[in-house]
Amino acid sequence: MTTPAPRFSLVVPAYNEGRWLPFLLDSVDAASVACSIGDAAVEVIVADNASTDRTAEVASARGCRVVRVAKRCIAAARNGGAAVARGDVLLFVDADARIHPRTFEAVDEALATGRVVGGATGVSLDRWSAGIALTWAVMVPMVWVTGMDTGVVFCRRADFEAVSGYDERRRFAEDVIFLLALRRLGRGRGQRLVRLRRVKAVASTRKFDEHGDWHYLTTILGLPLATLVRPRAAERLVDRYWYRPER
């Protein structure tokens, strides 16, 4: 007997996330049960991006589909997960986040209007400090102006394919480029990106724990300029920050 295809495919790029993944999956289980379509409408795909810990074993034990992506690139991991997805709607979330219980309901309602090409839920943070609060204050106006956010990013699978997914030439900011491509696609059809602020995900502040609460303002915001004027130093920072973290 053939198993019906799920409505939603949640793709989780993961590198050495064995410690954090259970917290995300607990939140996904709660959201799946709360989904009016039924929890069978959701599949979770963990794109194991060359982990050296028990990420794949943890994911398999929790009933996730695991796809191994050898290319150490976050965009490649997202694309690798999407390539095996069976759902009509694709969602992407970081392995150290936790999603809101009504995430799938809210995404379904937004796409059902026909006026939405995709979007994101936005995030709240799991701790605050002066440095983190100032970083947040700097970033919020950019979110308001662009209409683009982070958290759980979503779109129809057909539209993901229409924009060729995430750009694997980019080792960072691939999520921004992807949303820009979606916005261009939607504009031609009278559709827009949305921010589902009622169902914000909870984002981990572990980067602040590792690099300091002021690091985003002093280092990461200047990365695009550093890429132009000091490309080798910028590449080393990208490698250390996103691809060889302390875990």
The rounded Rg comes to 17 Å
Give, in order, the helices and strands: EHEHEHEHEEHEHHEEHHHH
- Going across the major beta sheet, what is the strand order? 3-2-1-4-7-5-8
CATH topology: Spore Coat Polysaccharide Biosynthesis Protein SpsA, Chain A
Overall geometry? globular
Could you say what the CATH architecture is?
Alpha-Beta Complex
Please give the count of helices.
11
CATH superfamily: Spore Coat Polysaccharide Biosynthesis Protein SpsA, Chain A
Q: What composes the largest sheet? A: 7 strands, mixed
Percent helix: 40-55%
The class by helix and strand makeup works out as alpha/beta
Uncertain regions spanning at least 5 consecutive residues: none
Task: Give the amount of beta strand, in percent.
Answer: 15-25%
- The overall strand count is 9
- Indicate the CATH class: Alpha Beta
Distance between the termini: 42 Å
Number of domains: 1
Overall average pLDDT = 94
Question: How does this model look, in words?
Answer:
The chain is α/β, with parallel strands linked by helices and 247 residues long. The protein has one domain: Spore Coat Polysaccharide Biosynthesis Protein SpsA, Chain A (Alpha-Beta Complex). It has helices at 21-34, 55-61, 74-83, 103-112, 130-146, 157-162, 174-187, 206-211, 215-218, 223-229, 231-243; strands at residues 8-14, 42-48, 65-68, 89-92, 116-120, 123-125, 153-156, 192-195, 201-203. Strands 3-2-1-4-7-5-8 form a seven-stranded mixed β-sheet, with helices on both faces. A two-stranded parallel ribbon has the order 6-9. The radius of gyration is 17 Å and the shape is globular.
